[in-house]
Amino acid sequence: MKIKSSELILNPDGSVYHLNLRPEHVAKDIIFVGDQNRVDRITKHFDAIEFSTQKREFKTTTGTYKGKRLTVISTGIGPDNIDIAVNEIDALFNIDLETREIKKDLTSVNIVRIGTSGSLQTDIPVNSFVLSQYGLGLDNLMRSYLIDGVTDVALEDAFIQHTNWDLKKGRPYFIKNSAELEAKLESDLTFKGITGTAGGFYGPQGRVLRLQIQDPELNHKIDNFKFGEYRITNFEMETSAIYGLCNLLGHHAVSLNTIIANRANGTFSEDPYAAVDKLIVYTLDKLSAI
Ligand code: R1P
């Protein structure tokens, strides 16, 4: 069935609407970052650059690192932008943009996020790395899709009960990473746990400036939540949407974050750039070996 031009919007040059990319521009191993300036901080390590473009916050560069073809894309801040980025990347691989039909043979890509994040645990200090085993969606984005097959309902129920979660804010969901990519990107340098993805930076992550928040105790309830071997390690704004969409579309995803703030003890990294640069080199070396 042909997908209408109002639903999959293409630019006059045939590229997808927001990312400005055509299929030949994107590698099957993709790095997502939030900050558009982080793209160059990654690709400066490349052997060669073959393509670069930018539209709004979506900056893309494709090239090779130690011979491995990689694409780096900035997604800006938040799960809403992840909805655009993952759907448009999937379209580049799995929809014939000329006939507007879904291809018979589908392609899976690898998506690795290199992000920044706040730790919720005193023993996960600033400048450390966290690899997200699950994304905990507190933002509702994935509730627009049919996620019953990919969310862990037992974890959801336990979390809702433990936090006395107000369902007026929507039902949180827990979506797993790609175990295959986790095995390739973990090491003794990576803490592991559940990453909470919030739909905002202040109130949705329990920060109080001038506005009262719905549940001032929520962060504490989140940081002492336990489910078997799992605990919630950190907060950011993209991982659960990446995991949710990749699970549904058949792609592999893993999220790595540098901890730049520790919310449990109130500290902030003295050199967040150096800490992120370490995660960049770590991830590039791991990815080049896949
Ligand atoms: C908030 O400052 C932003 O920083 C974190 C959050 O997820 C959010 O996008 O990640 P990035 O540094 O990757 O953008």
Automatic annotation (TrEMBL):
Gene3D superfamilies linked: Nucleoside phosphorylase domain (3.40.50.1580)
Enzyme kind, highest EC tier: transferase
Domain Nucleoside phosphorylase: 30-266
Catalysed conversion reaction: uridine + phosphate = alpha-D-ribose 1-phosphate + uracil
Domain of life of the organism encoding this protein: Bacteria
E.C. code: 2.4.2.3
Entry-linked Pfam families: PNP_UDP_1 (PF01048)
Protein known as: Uridine phosphorylase
